[in-house]
Design goal:
The complex is a heterotrimer. By secondary structure, chain A is of the alpha/beta class. Helix content of chain A is 39%, strand content 26%. Chain A has a six-stranded mixed beta sheet, sandwiched between helices. In chain A, a hairpin with a 2-residue loop joins strand 1 and strand 2. Chain A starts with a strand and ends with a helix. Chain B is mainly alpha-helical. Helix content of chain B is 74%, strand content 0%. The two termini of chain B are 26 Å apart. In chain C, strands 1-2 form a two-stranded antiparallel ribbon. In chain C, strand 1 and strand 2 form a beta hairpin. In chain C, 53% of the residues are buried. The chains are: A alpha/beta, B mainly alpha, C mainly alpha. Chains in contact: A-C, B-C. The complex binds adenosine-5'-diphosphate (ADP) and magnesium ion. Adenosine-5'-diphosphate binds next to helix 1 of chain A.
Chain lengths: 235, 339, 287
């Protein structure tokens, strides 16, 4: 569904990504693991159209999107839960969710999706009138998920959703991600520093090191790979 | 610091500047004799504004573009105007320094709040503070003469056979003060403190972390620049013989900032070059005076949008091109010169 | 009572003048220095149309037509400023400040050259007074107050109850977050400039019906708007309203008690104190 070929992205003159090729398909979790500064966020920002690649191509459902605007990309069905969540702190939880549906005009569909999100994350329903900044870290992460789902995406990009959360909540977020993938009919690209966590729920994985792909393969193989175990799983 | 230490610690560039100034002085002294009386006035106003922009550039070295500079200069002007039109008038020299001091004091008072701000907040807060000060010139009619201002401000007594009541005589006064300020500021710019100010402007957090008093190094140029503005203001009151609140309004402020932009502020001569350019525009289009700010504005926008670096960069590039042709025998000294 | 009425009248002027500036800053982190001239053009819209339309339609209708025409024309002017200046000078606050400062002179010069430097006034559209609890309340003033309230209600409705308004607020709070929801920054910027500029023009038309209309009326009022938005907390609309009420109160009281000449100074001192002790303003959020 998402095909990235030979992607190169630069900040001014310095390449942050070189010759990166990744593919991700529907109803599965594809993970990209790598340490801090490896280029994971850069990759997701480029997919979402916040950064322009220097070369290479990105296709979604067969169409080139590497030159499309962020708004076109959301419209085509790619939605991102960004690093740091990037919520709108001083508007209500409900308003945050509705901004997620900004590009949609099907009132019925919007209300149906809102109900579904409240069903997945009942806490958001309870707190729908509160300002987003008054939520706890875990609740904010759920809101970020909910907001991304409100656009009715076919593919979700998740940038380190577990970061800064307590281990119990981390685990819960991962469960939520697998559930969403099955129930919501979306493909997921999950970017993580916590390789163990990510590989435990993903079907396929890539290892990104200093802007280039070092390894790829089915998640269960990567977990067993010695170099991955040494470098990322601390084993 | 003894005089000997001062001389030996003096940077080479300053010595060159001093020699250059000494060479240029006779030319600057002779200049008004080649001009008609109209152009002599233009020259004096240019010299006054040069003092203003030199002060303004000091402020920009700390990284902020103030919009209260001209209103602050007004304090110097009003001090002189008020005290020299009393029944027992003060001496010009006393009011000149007092006025500059009051301008500096005002800057010191507003420094704490406004220097906490950055970017827009700095423009807005200095602009608002300056306007409020200008409103005070209008409102306190009993002291300032309100919108009409103060007139019949005398000029100082001449000495050494120079009559300050003539335009040329007054020009010499302004020229002398401008040259002194220029040399002092140039030396200051090259000094340790001057360099530290720029370092703080370039990276405040880093400077703070290595123990530099960033606060002091931002306040000092703000106050110093304002003191210089006060000198310029006091002199302009004497030169014009009359002042009113409009003299210290946003048109002149715009002209100064425009000079700094069009000329650039990374070198000492940049703003002066900018001022020369704006003054030239003003005189060429004298018949369409109302439209002049429009030309200034267009020049500013042009520099901001397409030709960043301003005139100083053009001159520096030209010098870099000419240098091998002119100075190819003295390679090592020219290298130090650039450095 | 008269004092209270004066406080309300003055505060409502401060609100209507400053709110567009605060909106544009809040969303785009840009100060439009020509905001004062946009306000001035709103005043001239009333003057021009009351000349052209006199004896054709009722004066009250002219007033409303002037408000709409002024808002539309100036709103489009604001969009042009966005496209030509702001868009090209993105992320350069100082350049934008200077460029719009230049624009404000251009607009002043154009008005001086085409209409003249003299102040104009339009004959009272709603003449007469109401006596209320010993206070004299000009009907024109009350009408202006009513329209200011209506204008604020319209703005509130737009921001709080429409999808576009919600997108505008979201963008003000988090630009990256907004882009990731598919909100187009260009569209939000144009919308904001249209609304902010139109608000300036409406304010100008309203005040033009009670004050002198002149080429410098905006420039003279602008610095106080700066003080208001700084004290309120730059970008915070509720802060702007609170600060406008505060300064309406202070300035009216000072005038009433014969200390009007200290008003500018006191306002500036309040601004400096706020910057010293609460640099984000009364209701501003941290950047
Ligand atoms: N805005 C930027 N400008 C310049 N370099 C950047 C910028 N953002 C990230 N980088 C650099 O690009 C590299 C990859 O960063 P990033 O994509 O954020 O990594 P990750 O998300 O894997 O931690 C890093 O070396 C980082 O320093
Ligand atoms: Mg990252």
């Amino acid at each position: 569904m998402l095909e990235i070929k030979q992607l190169e992205v630069k900040y001014d003159l310095i390449s942050a990504l070189r010759e990166v090729s990744v593919s991700a398909s529907e109803n599965t979790i594809t993970t990209i693991v790598g340490s801090n500064g490896a280029g994971k966020t850069t990759l997701l920002k480029t997919i979402s159209g916040l950064l322009r690649p220097a070369s290479g191509e990105i296709r979604f459902l067969g169409n080139r999107i590497d030159n499309a605007s962020p708004s076109k990309i959301v419209k085509m069905g790619i939605s991102q839960v960004p690093e740091g969540r990037e919520l709108f702190p001083r508007i209500s939880v409900y308003d945050n969710l509705m901004v997620g549906a900004y590009l949609r005009s099907d009132k019925k569909g919007i209300n149906r999706d809102l109900d579904r999100i409240y069903h997945h994350f009942p806490i958001l329903k309870d707190r729908r009138r509160q300002l987003a900044r008054n939520l706890s870290g875990g609740e904010q992460q759920m809101l970020a998920f909910g907001r991304a789902l409100m656009s009715g995406p076919k593919m979700l990009l998740l940038d380190e959703p577990s970061i800064g959360l307590a281990p119990v909540i981390e685990q819960k977020i991962m469960e939520t991600i697998s559930n969403l993938t099955q129930e919501e009919d979306v493909g997921v690209v999950l970017v993580e520093q916590n390789a163990a966590l990510a590989l435990s729920i993903a079907s396929y994985g890539y290892v990104l090191e200093q802007g280039s792909l070092a390894l790829k393969g089915p998640a269960e193989d990567l977990i067993k790979d010695d170099s991955v175990r040494a470098a990322y799983l601390g084993l | 610091m003894t005089i000997l230490q001062f001389i030996t610690s003096t940077p080479k560039r300053f010595v060159y500047a001093l020699i250059g100034t000494i060479i240029a002085t006779p030319l600057l002294v002779a200049l008004p004799h080649a001009l008609t009386s109209y152009w002599q006035s233009v020259l004096v106003i240019f010299a006054l504004n040069t003092i203003m922009v030199m002060g303004y550039r000091v402020i920009t070295t700390m990284g902020g573009w103030s919009f209260s500079h001209v209103a602050t200069a007004g304090l110097g002007a009003y001090t002189t105007a008020i005290l020299m039109t009393l029944e027992t008038p003060w001496s010009f020299w006393a009011t000149l320094f007092l006025g500059a001091g009051i301008s500096g004091l005002f800057a010191l008072i507003i420094a704490y709040p406004v220097l906490r701000t950055r970017h827009y907040y700095f423009f807005l807060s200095t602009f608002a503070a300056g306007e409020a000060l200008r409103q005070a010139y209008i409102q306190f009619k009993g002291i300032t003469g309100g919108s009409f201002g103060i007139s019949f401000i005398p000029r100082p007594e001449g000495f050494w056979g120079i009559d300050f009541n003539t335009t040329t005589g007054f020009y010499y006064l302004v020229l002398a003060i401008a040259l002194i300020i220029w040399l002092l500021l140039y030396r200051f710019d090259l000094s340790r403190v001057g360099r530290t100010i720029k370092a703080v402007a370039a990276n405040e957090e880093l400077s703070e972390s290595i123990g530099i008093n960033t606060w002091g190094h931002r306040t000092l140029p703000f106050v110093l620049g304002s003191v210089i503005a006060g000198f310029a203001g006091a002199l302009s009151a004497n030169f014009n013989g009359a002042i009113n609140p409009l003299d210290f309004g946003s048109i002149l402020m715009f002209k100064l900032v425009a000079a700094a932009i069009v000329g650039g502020v990374s070198t000492f001569f940049g703003p002066i070059l900018g001022l020369l350019y704006l003054t030239a525009l003003e005189e060429i289009f004298r018949a369409f005076a109302e439209w002049v700010p429009l030309l200034w504005g267009a020049s500013v926008i042009a520099v901001l949008m397409i030709w960043s670096g301003g005139l100083e960069m053009a001159v520096l590039k030209l010098l870099a091109l000419l240098r091998p042709i002119l100075f190819n025998r003295a390679k090592n000294s020219s290298a130090k010169n650039i450095g | 009572m008269q004092v209270l009425a004066n406080i309300i009248f003055l505060s409502s002027f401060y609100v209507s003048f400053a709110v567009g500036l605060a909106l544009v800053f809040g969303v785009m982190r840009t100060i439009n220095f020509a905001h004062g001239e946009f306000y001035m053009l709103g005043g001239y819209a009333l003057w021009l149309l009351s000349g052209v339309l006199s004896n054709t339609i009722p004066d009250g209708a002219t007033f409303i037509v002037a408000m709409l025409v002024g808002a539309g024309v100036v709103g489009i002017l604001g969009m042009l400023v966005q496209l030509t200046l702001f868009e090209r000078l993105k992320e350069q606050p100082f350049s934008i400040f200077m460029a719009t400062l230049g624009l404000s002179y251009v607009l002043q010069v154009v008005v001086v050259k085409t209409i003249g430097p003299m102040g104009r006034s339009v004959p009272a559209i709603f003449p007469g007074f109401i006596m209320f609890e010993g206070a004299i309340l000009p009907i024109q003033r009350i009408v202006v107050l009513g329209f200011t309230a209506l204008m604020m209600a319209g703005l509130w409705y737009f921001l709080m109850r429409t999808d576009l308004g919600r997108a505008v607020r979201a963008t003000a709070q988090n630009k990256t977050g907004a882009m990731l929801q598919g909100i187009s920054m260009g569209k939000i910027a144009l919308t904001t400039m249209f609304v902010g500029s139109a608000l300036a023009a409406i304010s100008g038309t309203l005040m033009g019906s009670v004050l002198m209309i002149g080429p410098f009326m905006g420039a003279e009022a602008l610095w106080r708007a700066f003080i208001i938005i700084i004290v309120g907390g730059i970008g915070s609309l509720s802060g702007t309203v609170v600060a406008a009420l505060l300064f309406g109160l202070i300035d009216t009281l000072m005038t009433t008690f014969g200390a009007g000449k200290f008003a500018a100074m006191v306002d500036a001192i309040i601004m400096l104190l706020v910057l010293s002790f609460m640099p984000n303003g009364l209701l501003g959020s941290r950047e």
